[in-house]
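USER: I would love a firmer grasp of how sequence relates to backbone shape in proteins. This is the protein in question:
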Amino acid sequence: MNKHYDVIIFGAGPGGTAAAYGVAHKKSVLVIENDLFGGTCPNRGCDPKKMLYSAVQAKVRATNLQGSGLKGVPTIDWPDLMAFKRQYTRQIPKETENGLQQAGIATYHGQVHFLDEQHVQLADKTIISGDDFILATGRRPRLLDIPGQEYLKTSTDFLDLDALPKRMTFVGAGLVTMELANIANQAGVAVDILHHNDQPLKEWPTPLVTQLVESMASAGIHFHFNTNLTAITKQAGGYQLTTDQGILSSDYVVAAVGRIANTEALKLENCGVTVTKRGIAVDDHLQTSTPHIYALGDVMAKPQPKLTPVAAYEGQYLAQLLTGQNTEAIDYPVIPQILFGTAEVSQVGVTYQTAENHPKAYQISTLDLTHWYTYNRLKDPLAQAVIIRATATQQVVGFAAFTTAGEQLLNLFSLIMNLKLSNTQIQEMIFAYPTAASDLTYLM
């Protein structure tokens, strides 16, 4: 290992590796990872979750087609499903590190902290210097500060469960809970969800969230709104959960009440980097309060959604910035978001709440898709779409949907909005039929 590098990157997730590959052709690079190479998403986040969801998705579609050509609903074999997931995840760390090394990028596995603006110290006391630094250390689940905190599990634990408990409780009704609770429920677990108010997923379209909650409740998931967990007590055969609304019992308790930026171990106070409660503060060039130290991804305090492709986009941007290919401020495209629940809730562009709060600027159209050919073929019982147009131009500027085919529509509308395609341009296209894309001429 060298004692000096042009660029030192903390974090080997999608954002950090995108930056590393982007600068490696011009600069010497060191990537430091104190956990799993590859980061949260492929190891213990979106990728393994989607693999577990694949079985749930197949089961739900088979259920919807009962009496329409299918007989019998498959059951989820959790050990087999977990083996399928692990077959993928077990290869990620080594393959990620090998890929970096094969590209001429140095790697280090261990905890490192700053000594000053230009020097960091490795676990073995070796001191390394750098010209530029990128902080891409991500976030971790936040645990409630309550008696019995040590009994709380996180999404990381859930995604690597050898066997499912009979009863499971999720604390917090955010995106993580809505996805994982659905997986557990479909796999046969009795699920409770505790939420501190009666408005889960505040940043998602209210009508679609209402549909999601109703759909999950009808599947047997029990919601406890306006309920705060105050203590956990271990008992024979499970846990007693004390809330401000009464007592519950559970075999497994998952805390999903937000995430905390991974900054403490870096000793950023030694290099003057400003850290807020929301994460590392950056400017419009992703530069921190200290010149030549940048941040990207979930560790930042930023308004953009904390998503894997967003971090990768920021990594590519910083690579261009540090190699002189770009000097402009970062400019984000529209960012699609999707929740994989009983059906897929998706949104992109101007949000439903923004449009509702500015009725003169935007027009909202809500479409019941259940009788459209595409969704009738799938027997999708709750399919809906929300189209948001700018009043002045009639351009589509926002889209949301609740359907089992949500991801297809979401990416199509993301493309339409990023390219600013007009209704006329869509009408002039020919799409493969019958597909979700062929419905665009009617949706627009």
